[in-house]
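[recover] target loaded
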């Protein structure tokens, strides 16, 4: 009788299956602390191969975990209890870009920036830009419904999905949206953001926009956080329509300053980086003037409009320095991606300061302020059990506060393994029961990414 590996190898054309301890070790984690060693890693190359492997897994009750680049921040690609990891790295063709319809047809393993660059070459624009876009894949972005810097104006991944093809839990191939006048699986679009738990996406059609040719980038230095947050609120209600508003508060700045050449005016309590873009020069000038008026009205310490590409880059370098600087000042951290309404951002950040005192832990907040999506970094020493425990307690309080203020426990990183124990903070029993019904309708035997989002009993 054939082993599972032999069965899988017999259905692969150009793909490969690997059971070597080294490869299984590499595929045991993403960026989180969760680990689980896969039994087999299958490097798929075609939709037909994906369907055939899922069919074998389904017949044998083996878990199937799809994996893009493994940049996930909630444990989505971790094969917690083993199973088959479908590695999409080599299924990475941009099948075509229809310039007239402004649609790109891509395989899931395409790296996000590759699509953005290809679109750019044609004068087109694919806006979703997670900070991981140099590495992350479109399949992973689809599964996590990824956001990013430009999402305050352009929306998240789901806004651009015009259709897709996917393999269901019986190994059948399905199409929806632009791929099929009538969806072959009703309600398929619920798969966007379902973290690989409902099906395996094998091709995605993504809407592209015309690339806005004009842009201006500003940095504003504020005496305190309240002033920065009030500036965000004013900008959002003014018609300035920025494509990016990033907030870096004083603790995040002080971390970044230690490790990069950032020149900050004295007494800076918070910084905003704001980008405007436009198709028409008069519109850009008008919005730029409006923004400068708001900035002066808000009595910021200082602001700069970038005069050159180099200066623009220096603003973004400051933003990028934050994440790596935080990594260097502590041997561990919990990075929670909550959201709160912009009007409640200040109360939320004040709350994190009180929390920092309560648990004697450093908590650093920064993020996509334009849409209230904040990254709360709780730093702790992993060799100190009290700190480790306190960090967990603090993160639970962070989720509770975010929901109390009208927000969400996850803005963009997903639930996966990291937040599954906190789902009840945001969702009622009925809501969770309904999500489980959807899971059972798509995947009655629970083979796709089991253990993620919630535990489920089948039957
Ligand atoms: C430095 C850094 C910055 C980040 N910044 C952002 C940000 O700004 N915004 C944001 O939203 N996220 C951000 N992330 C998180 C992460 O990059 C995103 O969630 C991204 O979409 C994951 O893509 P991936 O290819 O790495 O997916 P993986 O980590 O490999 O997988 C993520 C999930 O997608 C599923 N999946 C992958 N391929 C498929 C498929 N073909 N079919 C079905 N399911 C599939 C997996 O099973 C898993 O559940 C960041 C991460 C890092 C490390």
């Amino acid at each position: 009788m054939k082993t599972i590996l032999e069965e899988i190898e017999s259905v692969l054309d150009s793909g490969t299956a690997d059971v070597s301890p080294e490869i299984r070790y590499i595929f045991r984690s993403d960026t989180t602390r969760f680990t689980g060693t896969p039994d087999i890693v299958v490097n798929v190359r075609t939709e037909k191969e994906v369907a055939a492997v899922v069919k074998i897994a389904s017949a044998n009750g083996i878990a199937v975990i799809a994996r893009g680049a493994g940049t996930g921040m909630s444990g989505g690609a971790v094969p917690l209890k083993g199973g088959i990891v479908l590695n999409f790295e080599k299924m990475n063709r941009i099948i075509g870009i229809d310039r007239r319809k402004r649609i790109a047809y891509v395989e899931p393993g395409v790296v996000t920036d590759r699509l953005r660059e290809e679109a750019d070459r044609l004068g087109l624009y694919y806006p979703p830009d997670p900070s991981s876009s140099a590495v992350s894949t479109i399949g992973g972005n689809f599964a996590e419904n990824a956001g990013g810097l430009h999402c305050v104006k352009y929306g998240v991944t789901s806004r651009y999905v015009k259709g897709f093809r996917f393999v269901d839990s019986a190994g059948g191939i399905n199409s929806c949206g632009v791929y099929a006048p009538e969806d072959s699986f009703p309600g398929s679009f619920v798969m966007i953001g379902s973290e690989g738990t409902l099906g395996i996406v094998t091709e995605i059609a993504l809407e592209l926009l015309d690339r806005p040719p004009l842009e201006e980038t500003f940095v504003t230095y504020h005496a305190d956080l309240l002033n920065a947050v009030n500036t965000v609120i004013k900008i959002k209600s003014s018609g300035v329509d920025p494509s990016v508003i990033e907030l870096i508060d004083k603790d995040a700045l002080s971390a970044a300053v230690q490790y990069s050449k950032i020149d900050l005016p004295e007494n800076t309590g918070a910084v905003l980086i704001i980008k405007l873009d436009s198709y028409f020069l008069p519109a850009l000038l008008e919005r730029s003037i409006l923004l400068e008026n708001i900035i002066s009205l808000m009595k910021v310490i200082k602001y700069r409009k970038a005069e050159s590409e180099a200066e623009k880059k220096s603003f973004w370098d400051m933003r990028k320095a934050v994440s790596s600087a935080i990594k260097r000042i502590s041997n561990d951290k919990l990075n929670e991606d909550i959201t709160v309404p912009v009007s409640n951002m200040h109360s939320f950040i004040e709350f994190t300061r009180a929390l920092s005192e309560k648990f004697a832990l450093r908590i650093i907040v920064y993020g996509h302020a334009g849409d209230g999506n904040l990254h709360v970094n709780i730093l702790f020493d992993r060799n100190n059990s009290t700190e480790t425990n306190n960090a967990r307690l603090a993160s639970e309080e962070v989720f509770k506060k975010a929901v109390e203020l009208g927000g969400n426990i996850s803005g963009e990183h997903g639930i996966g393994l990291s937040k599954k124990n906190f789902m009840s903070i945001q969702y009622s029993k009925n809501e969770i029961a309904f999500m489980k019904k959807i899971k059972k309708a798509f995947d009655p035997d629970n083979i796709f990414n089991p253990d993620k989002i919630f535990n489920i009993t089948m039957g």
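[recover] notes: Residues 330-443 form a domain with the Alpha-Beta Plaits fold (CATH 3.30.70.2740).
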